[in-house]
Amino acid sequence: MKYKKKKFFIENLSVNLLANKFKTPCYCYSYNKIKENIIDFNNNFKKIKPLICFSVKANPNKTILREICNLGLGADVVSIGELMVALKSGIKPSKIVFSGVGKTFKEIDYALKKRIFLINAESKSEVLAIEKIAKLQKKRVNIGIRLNPNTDAKTLRQISTGKKENKFGVSENIFLDLVKYIRNSNNLNLKCLSVHIGSQILEIKPYQKMLSVLEKAIKKSQFDFEFIDLGGGIGIDYQNTNKKLNLKKYASIIEKFLKGKKSKIIFEPGRSIIGNTGILISKIIYIKEGYKKDFIILDTAMNDLMRPALYNARHRIIPSIKNFSKSNKIYEFVGPICESTDKFSSIRNFQKLKEGDLIIICDVGAYGMSLSSNYNLRPKPCEILIKNKNSQIISKRQSLKDLI
Length: 404
Ligand SMILES: *Cc1c(COP(=O)(O)O)cnc(C)c1O
Hints:
The chain is of the alpha/beta class. It folds into 2 domains: 2-28 and 275-403, Lyase, Ornithine Decarboxylase, Chain A, domain 1 (Beta Barrel); 32-273, TIM Barrel. It has 12 helices and 20 strands. It has helices at 15-22, 31-44, 62-70, 80-88, 105-113, 124-136, 172-183, 205-221, 247-258, 271-274, 307-311, 400-403, and strands spanning 2-4, 7-10, 13-14, 26-30, 51-55, 74-77, 96-98, 118-121, 141-146, 188-194, 227-229, 264-267, 278-289, 293-298, 317-319, 330-334, 343-347, 358-361, 382-387, 390-395. Strands 4, 13, 14, 15, 16, 17, 18, 19 and 20 form a 9-stranded mixed sheet that branches. Strand 13 (278-289) and strand 14 (293-298) form a beta hairpin. The longest helix has 17 residues, at 205-221. The two termini are 37 Å apart. The relative contact order is 0.16. The chain binds pyridoxal-5'-phosphate. Pyridoxal-5'-phosphate binds at residues 55, 57-58, 76, 78, 99, 196, 199, 231-234, 268-272, 366. Pyridoxal-5'-phosphate binds next to helix 10.
């Protein structure tokens, strides 16, 4: 994805051409970028030979999941819907991990019937529920325990999950109790210790701390875990400032952690696989002069891309065609929705824009479409996958008829 001369291209298709063909707003993904990310991920963790389970909630599009499956990944799911779409996309049950704090009877029952690889339990009650359902189905099932390592992920507060005040996982004490309990169960097979401390992590320290908490918990439990599931959370470079998590370093501290253990590693990456593979193309409806700034009113809004409104996240915005001029006003990029949080970014020194121009919101492949809604009764945008010079609709734009 880059400018050629003045025009922005995904592979060999210009954004202007795509917008003409598919209309706006429109999510657009690059297959080559997905492939590159997966190859990079594998290379970085080559020595560890992990089981990599793509976090489906980052992007549950069936075609994308099928491609990710063909590139060798499994899936981490957090609902029966995600489990169904993962299976439908061809991902083998033996590569599926089920996470989440509130799995219902129906969800656990379905997961056990499909014989998925692992359920990571997040409470005592859930362990008992899984045991009960396994008994009903006359099975012995693999189970993991998610530990809350009380580790600050040093990321946005809203996407931290590993502190003791967060709802996720169990404390060390409960973890130790559960290890004892599960070891004596006829229907549960203790397979895994899991953690996931948060998302968009750019520093190595939180991971270092997480591993040392794991180390201690494992020692105390006196149990040889066949699998250690380290979750996801690897951050991406949203601001294009080259601020990245040092993956080589992350790999090396994991290698050190594994010394003297027979455990295998599971990863559940979402954002780092799919985040930078997608853009959102939008057209400027109006430009409205405001006090000290111009409002650039787009045809996309917080219902299509909620991260800025939900987490105060910032996505780069770039023009589809560069014109090398400069506006002396601050541009505030907003959507048409009736909320003041329906804004994407305020940018100084942007090139001069006019109504009808196309803009691109970058790095929206993860938690973009998957967080979209129909707020203000707006139909969801279409999704396009660019693969080998072909553009293919992988989910249709919703019609008003679908909604009304
Ligand atoms: C969301 C989530 C992930 C993926 O996180 P990323 O930051 O997208 O890599 C992995 N594991 C669990 C349990 C999650 O909830």
